[in-house]
Design goal:
Blueprint (H helix, E strand, L loop, with lengths): L1 H23 L12 H16 L5 E8 L2 E12 L4 E2 L6 E2 L4 H14 L20 E4 L8 E4 L6 H5 L13 H6 L14 H8 L17 H13 L3 H10 L23 E4 L2 E4 L27 E2 L1 H12 L3 E2 L2 E2 L3 H7 L13 E3 L4 E3 L2 H4 L8 E5 L3 E6 L4 E6 L10 H12 L3
Antiparallel strand pairs: 1-2, 1-16, 2-3, 4-9, 5-6, 7-8, 10-11, 12-13, 13-14, 14-15, 15-16
Helix pairs in contact: 2-12, 3-7, 3-8
């Protein structure tokens, strides 16, 4: 009986959620948008299989072409144990998808004349001046400290070439002792500016501008936003991005009346996926509802929906504007979505812009897509990309960590591009 009830709940939710996603955008006829409905059905079946095989509890997918819904789905469970079906308005921890939004905030401030991305970081956060780098001499098992070859700039932070990881570099012992490892900040009961100021006393992993290293760069940028604007990060994003784009469900911490819409985080188990207990640290359900609600993590702190994040991405595809609200100029968007690494090693066929990977060589990358595509993803196994050549916006949200053995990213990408017939 319980299984039968769950079936009817899921069936109803699928119909409802598809309608709710469509209600936020104009739903297009896939055939008129240049996609084969028959081929999209293949994608739909393959995505549902991940839920049916209990490899993922649930997922929400939203694909726009020419600003219209070409495909959408909400499969499985928001909370499997409670029998709560996934829906189009489910709220997800988007983790590092926060980075693109905060990078956009930095560019808004440049357009306002309040900073320049060539500025040294120390101008805004003095504790990040005169940095040292932990260097491992050849043949050594330890490290020595040397003065950084150059100051960290805001552009270094935007491109992840500032020299710091998530506390896993040569001086890991010092980062760990200081309490800085991993991307999770929601449990910290202090303003992010105080946290980042303390972090500035620790040695870098590499000289600024010389390596691509993924880490705290965008959390630091969040503090730059606060210093340059005179506002806390939440307020700045609300005023300059969320409100203009009608991103009504994007928050650092959940309002009380939205708590029942937050998806549960799962992990692979012996008999399918299992919910992660609250007490399992960084990979747990997190303190996004009941935590101190003080620390605004610019690198990984936001919650959002497929609808909200698609609106943000459509703005970028439109050259900085959506529904009459201009967030950035077209030239700023152009600068953000070209490679800035200038030969620094990254990924095959890809460079990195100001907040996004950028696809530069389709053949070298070896995946379906288009040169000029840009995107990123999040630790809870969410992903997104924008393909200007095909006028595509893709948002895929789920909550599983670690995503061991999953190939759903490839299924999603292959399924979308094989459906394009015009």
């Amino acid at each position: 009986m319980v299984l039968l009830q769950r079936f009817f709940i899921a069936a109803f939710a699928l119909v409802f959620s598809a309608a709710s996603l469509a209600a936020e955008f104009v739903r297009g006829d896939p055939e008129q948008l240049g996609l084969s409905a028959e081929r999209l059905a293949v994608l739909d079946a393959r995505l549902k299989a991940f839920v049916e095989e209990d490899r993922i509890a649930g997922q929400v997918v939203l694909v726009l072409r020419d600003g219209k819904v070409a495909f959408s789905a909400a499969n499985g469970w928001r909370d499997k144990e409670a029998g709560a079906a996934m829906s189009g308005d489910t709220i997800f921890r988007i983790a590092s998808q926060t980075k693109a939004i905060v990078s956009t905030a930095i560019m808004v401030l440049q357009e306002q004349g309040k900073l320049d991305i060539s500025d040294p970081l120390g101008r805004y956060i003095p504790e990040w001046s005169d940095m040292q780098v932990a260097v491992v001499p050849d043949g050594s098992v330890g490290y020595v400290l040397e003065d950084a070859a150059r100051p960290i700039t805001i552009r270094h932070l935007l491109t992840h070439t500032a020299g710091m990881s998530y506390g896993s570099g040569p001086a890991q012992d010092r980062w760990e002792a200081a309490g800085f490892q991993g991307w999770y900040f929601a449990n910290r009961d202090e303003p992010i500016a105080e946290t980042i100021a303390r972090m500035g006393s620790l040695p870098l992993d590499a000289h600024p501008g010389e390596q691509w290293i993924y880490g705290y760069s965008t959390d630091i940028l969040g503090v730059v936003v606060e210093k340059a604007s005179g506002m806390d990060l939440q307020s700045f994003l609300q005023q300059h991005i969320f409100d203009p784009l009608d991103m009504r469900d994007t928050h650092f911490y959940l309002p009380e009346d939205k708590r029942d819409r937050l998806a549960t985080v799962y992990r692979p188990g012996a008999d399918g996926v299992e919910a992660i207990p609250e007490t399992d640290g960084m990979q747990s359900q997190g303190m996004y509802a009941n935590g101190p609600r003080t620390s605004f993590s610019g690198g990984a702190g936001l919650l959002s929906t497929a609808r909200d994040y698609a609106r943000f991405l459509q703005m970028t595809l439109n050259g900085g504007e959506l529904d009459g609200a201009r967030v950035l100029s077209p030239k700023t968007m152009e600068l953000m979505t070209v490679d800035h690494l200038a030969g620094i090693p990254f990924r095959s066929g890809q460079g990195f812009g100001l907040g996004y990977y950028v696809l530069e060589d389709l053949g070298a990358n070896g995946r379906l897509g288009s040169e000029g595509e840009y995107g990123w993803g999040g630790a809870y196994h969410s992903t997104y990309w924008v393909d200007p050549a095909e006028a595509l916006v893709v948002v895929y949200l789920t909550q599983i960590i670690p995503a061991t053995g999953l190939n759903d990213y490839n299924v999603l990408r292959n399924g979308i591009y094989q459906a394009i017939v015009d």
